[in-house]
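User: quick one, sequence for these tokens?
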């Protein structure tokens, strides 16, 4: 699966002359600046603005992977894993770009004048394979309950209990109530919640990470040296190169990178297809921006905090969020636990909202708009269940569901590559 995801990203990168790198300034110029200038306003009351679509997609992808996931990558794969996480992000930018282009190209409006799109739609309309589109939607539905619901609600309840001793059942009930109000409220409430929560928590976490890095700035040269040397298996102490070290760093880094930004799953296209877009390629540029913020910025900042604080010396004792808390404690003292727990909870809450949107669109595709309310109710109830569950099995199932989503989506991307390349040739930006 990793080879297929990276191979597809590399294929499109080569075919477009590494468009995501050459035209990155254009991606910024065409996306975030206009959105802020125009006040994030949507063109009508039925669909999302471009900024809301980006925030919804970012809400679904930014979560535990940006904090606890990075710590786990460093523990298992060493500092070199971060370099390979960057590689997966660069190729992932092109994957999400292509997904968004196809999402806009093949989307259609339902009877309520809402846009419907995403992999299930471009698989059906582009490949004339409705059964495969239905299979993708079914896998998306399963993934929304796994990674998008149970895992996130458990992360919230664990973080709140760790920092504030709030019982898991209580935090699960409150989270289910608050998320349920947003989710059952429909498309516009999801978009408005996402555009408020994600920028706020992202800025808060980024500022905190920058402060921690600045306070340990003397260790930054060593941090970057370890990232690049261990990425290629260079072992100064042993005076040689280790192939096993390269393999482990690359495998862990790529897996955690994909887990963080969801490139190849096609999920981002579901959100972006609901936007009042200015064109397929322009909406694709939002995908490049998303992956950059998610992995290149947030994951890198977490990694630098961990490396510059030297807490990896204790990686046999700590992992995940506790290791991140220990790193931030070097700068923030006892406040670090509260800061990381709050950040994790807010990121996870945003992910709940984002994935509920994906699941609702998949449910509408499979069962029709009248049945979506039942999905939303069950999803909201699942939040409480996830808060009190032992979560190890759910993590394993979630990985399987995510992989099942990727398979039909990557096949569609490759078979519809001519459409993406044609839209890119016709783009005047």
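Assistant:
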């Amino acid at each position: 699966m990793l080879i297929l995801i990276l191979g597809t990203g590399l294929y499109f990168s080569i075919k477009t002359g590494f468009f995501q790198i050459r035209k990155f300034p254009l991606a910024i110029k065409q996306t975030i600046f206009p959105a802020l200038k125009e006040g994030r306003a949507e063109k009508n009351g039925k669909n999302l603005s471009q900024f809301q679509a980006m925030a919804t997609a970012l809400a679904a992808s930014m979560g535990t992977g940006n904090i606890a996931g990075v710590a786990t990558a460093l523990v298992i794969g060493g500092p070199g894993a971060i370099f390979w996480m960057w590689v997966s992000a660069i190729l992932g930018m092109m994957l999400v770009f292509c997904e968004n282009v196809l999402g806009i190209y093949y989307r259609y409006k339902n009877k309520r004048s809402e846009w419907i799109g995403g992999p299930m739609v471009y698989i059906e309309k582009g490949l004339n394979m409705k059964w495969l589109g239905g299979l993708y939607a079914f896998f998306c539905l399963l993934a929304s309950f796994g990674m998008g619901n149970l895992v996130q609600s458990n992360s919230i309840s664990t973080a709140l209990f760790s920092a504030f001793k709030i019982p898991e059942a209580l935090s699960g009930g409150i989270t289910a109530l608050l998320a349920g109000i947003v989710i059952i409220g429909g498309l516009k409430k999801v978009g408005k919640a996402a555009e408020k929560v994600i920028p706020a928590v992202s800025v808060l976490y980024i500022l905190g990470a920058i402060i921690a890095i600045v306070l340990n700035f003397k260790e930054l040269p060593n941090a970057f040296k370890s990232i690049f040397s261990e990425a290629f298996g260079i072992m100064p102490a042993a005076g040689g190169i280790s192939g096993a070290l390269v393999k482990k760093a690359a495998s862990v880094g790529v897996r955690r990178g994909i887990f963080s930004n969801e490139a190849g799953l096609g999920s981002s296209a579901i959100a972006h297809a609901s936007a009042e877009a200015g064109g397929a390629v322009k909406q694709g540029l939002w995908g490049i921006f998303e992956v950059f913020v998610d992995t290149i910025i947030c994951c890198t900042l977490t990694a630098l905090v961990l490396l510059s604080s030297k807490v990896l010396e204790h990686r046999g004792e700590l992992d995940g969020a506790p290791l991140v808390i220990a790193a931030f404690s070097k700068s923030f003292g006892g406040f670090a636990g509260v800061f990381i727990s709050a950040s994790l909870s807010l990121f996870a809450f945003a992910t709940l909202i984002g994935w509920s949107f994906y699941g609702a669109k998949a449910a509408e595709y499979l069962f029709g708009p009248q049945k979506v309310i039942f999905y939303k109710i069950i999803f909201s109830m699942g939040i409480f269940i996830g808060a009190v569950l032992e979560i190890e099995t759910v993590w394993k199932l979630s990985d399987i569901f995510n992989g099942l989503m990727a398979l039909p989506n990557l096949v569609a991307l490759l078979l519809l590559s001519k459409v993406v390349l044609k839209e890119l040739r016709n783009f005047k930006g």
